[in-house]
Fold this protein.
Amino acid sequence: MRNLILSIAFILGMNAFAQDIKNATLETIPVEVSFAFQNQFPNSTAEWRSNYQGNDDEQLVFIGTFKINSIQNAVIYDKEGIFQALETSITTSQLPISIQKYMSANYPKNPIRSVSKTINNKTKVIYEVGIIRGTLFYDLVFNGDGDFLQMVEKD
């Protein structure tokens, strides 16, 4: 009986160890991603993390955050190093006039906390404007033409 318990404990311990190895390997950036980033942003260094995206979280992507001329950026590549999107922090004055007017008309008492412009691999542009409403943070999402699309609560 004692040997059975020790054997089960050993197997469970090895399983946990194998899981840790799998997670550590998952965080390793593929050479294809590193190569794509260096080609696209040759003078930059990124901090990387991985995430699953898609309808069922089935697509592994790698997100690199970095600065160019003191401007915060985040780039996303799939595991083959194919560019998915680039998000760049911008100022409120860099938003299209239609978004600035929308924000003034609909959220005059909610100060803008963050603004970004995202371009995906199909050159589709999305703007996100972060505000605090009550005690919650929200992103207001606009298309490239400045049309309001949705409000998303963030953590």
Notes: Residues 2-26 form the longest helix (25 residues). Helices lie at 2-26, 31-40, 97-106.
